Sequence to fold (377 residues):
Amino acid sequence: MPFTFDGVNPDEVFRRLLSEAQETGGPLRIIAAHDPESSAAAGLVAKILKAMDVDFEFINDVFKIPLSDVKCLGINVPENICRDCVIIKSSGITACSRVGYNYVLKYTSLTKGVLSLVSELEFITRDFKLTAAAAMLTKHTPRMVRGELSNSEAELLSSLVNEGLVSVEEGPPLIGWDPSNPCKALTTSIDVLIPSKFMRKCGEGASVEEAALEVKADPARFRSKIYLVKGRWVSKDLIMAAYMMDWLTDVYGASAVFLTMINQAYLRLAAAGIMRMMSTLRDVIDNLGRYGRVGVSGRKYLIVDDVNPTQFSATVAEKSIRSAGLIGDERLVIKHEGRFYVPASTLPQSVRMDLASRDVSVCGGYFTLRSLEELSW
Fold:
């Protein structure tokens, strides 16, 4: 039966959904958008369902969504994707509305809203809080282009600081920044990536000021908040962890991000994978001039044809290269063994769902296409 409790806030609706799931034992189908934040939020919910001994299944919008034969929880998916469901969405406001038989819960920060709710029911350890924050930050990379946080997102990071999980420093927006050893960040940072220094020997006299000028930034404003993790974790810098989430989403699919919120092994896999990818990324930068470029439906695509999509993240590469100012609005795709690998997370949701409805093959988090014309919309 449809929910019948109008006039309540989104938290109450979510609590009721979990309560009903616990009473029935499920199953509950979690449907999430194919992006790190939505998948991590879904994983947090699954963590609670597992503790409550509720059966659940997970699917994201790169696959054809089954008919709603079971109760569903949607996360950043269309409001009509199921019937008699609860849909959680990122929004500019916090609100609850009714759309047909469905309840739509809106939060100004999806991660903050879900993390707060699941924390009422189970203690969430530091590692999973940090992972959720990293997934949220994927929306704000590269920092030179998309760094602005909403108030709610900034509040979530401040709460991690107050809990003693993270410290905040001011410095150049370089992953691994250490004022006592500037060469480390200049040669290994993928955000911001410094083309003349990346994966090369750092000569004497290398300076952040020169690096800023190289990426066409004002040296006086080449500054950022740096969120450093306290204690041992898979990454010292939350921005690097965000790139690990992007790598997982491309190479293994959004389900790997979902599973990371239950078991951190996937995040350690991403840490190793992204480090192995860096030398290949250097080669890609050196070969930018020879790669093909095509336009489809008003979008420009840069076709990288000498990497393996089972090890290489097009999203990480695109963001890093864009942070260096080497590309504009082109989207990076991979051509491998005669097929095009398009990272699903970079496509509009309507396009993902259209491709899914046509049973287009998926490899990890890539749609695999015979021609980029299949992306026409």
